[in-house]
Sequence to fold (465 residues):
Amino acid sequence: MMNRKRLPLFAGAILIAAIFFPVILTGYLSAKKGEIELAAHNYKAASDSFEQAASFLPWRDDLWEKAGIAASENGNPSDAIIFLNRSRGLSEQGWLAKGSSYFNTGDVSSALITYQQGLQFHDSAALYAGLAFIYRQQKDWLAESDALKNQSRLNSADAYAHYRLGLLQTLLEPDKALPELMRASALNPEADPAVQTLRTALNVSATQSADPSQQMLTIGRALGLVQEWELSIAAFEQAIMLNVDNAEAWAWLGEAKQHLGQNGIADLDQALALDNKSVIIRALRGLYWNRQNKYPQMLAEYLSAAESEPQNPAWQASIGDAYFKSGDIISALTAYQRATDLAPQDSTYWRLLAIFCADNGAHVEDIGLPAAQKAVEFAPDDPFALDVLGWSYLSSGRYANAAQILSDVIARFPNHLPAHIHLAMTYLAQGNRAAAFDELNYVRAADANGADGLFAGQLLKKYFP
Fold:
């Protein structure tokens, strides 16, 4: 028989078990449900289940982390931060979720601290990538470079990390940039055109060691060519620090700023004040006025450049463009013809002349079509030249010739979208609406957010309402 004195203790234990066993069971069932929901990518349900489980099983520290990770995946960074902060020890994935959650709430400084703290526990390529991303937002190029070095150390197959590191070293340590860029190109051949541009610039800048300011100017221009305008601004600013009288560096700084939505005219004015004879400065100022729709000022810049280099056909083509935008068609035609006179064997200027005539319906028969034929004669494998020949035939009313030329262009260069548009317009002129519809739909789908796709969409609305 049980001791009567121990009976209350035994009864108490039974009561405690009766109370807590369902709670513990519910906790484990919630944890199991959370795992199932997480595997099914039902992140909201998973987060709720893990939160409930963590409340019932306080010794299971991992459950708060799982709740936080699921909340982060569900796009609920505020809850993710709360849950992850309740966990006493985070895995690599937990630190990543916490850092990205802080960033997504706009708390960049906490995100940075989180990645730094996570790296004290995990030597992680992904955490270094997060760190590099934050430093990039802050334009702390040196710190970003250090983070990328560690990221690529831990993940040598990451093409982007090598490419981005190569870009930064082009600016910070030019003599160390090429190996990273070449590694990126080997891992991802799509990076090769940009890598080759930077490689050429690095080789040129190496020959300019006697003039560090000019070295930075060369590097800045190359970074601009590969659309890295923030880094190019840093390079041009460094060029100016090394030589405040480097007029072209001021001009290129003004150009780079425009690509980031800034004005840049103050820098372009400073460049002109330092050197009003530079054709490069005049050309960059011409681009500025063109973007501002100030065509008389644009024309004045190119006329000045042509005065300095009267044998350069590029200035005549630019003058033609400025005259056209100013509404002076006759002077524009004369300028385009002068460009072909200066470069009679260059397909580019014959093509520009032909495009001008076709677009404006001006002298297509006697000037435009012969110019297009010349363009093809000097560049028989250039899709742009072939396309303008088809466009010129269409503008002159020779629909069968246009359809044949443009169909050949598409067969040889299926990704040359302007030819598809011109072929569609040819089909419309011939009354073949079904074929025109197919061509325009193809372009709209292939270039949904690009200029060709948008133009195709406009034509579809106009002709197929």
Q: What stands out?
A: The CA atoms of residues 108 and 199 lie 34 Å apart. The domain at 276-344 is CATH 1.25.40.10 (Serine Threonine Protein Phosphatase 5, Tetratricopeptide repeat). Confidence is low (pLDDT under 50) at residues 9-21.
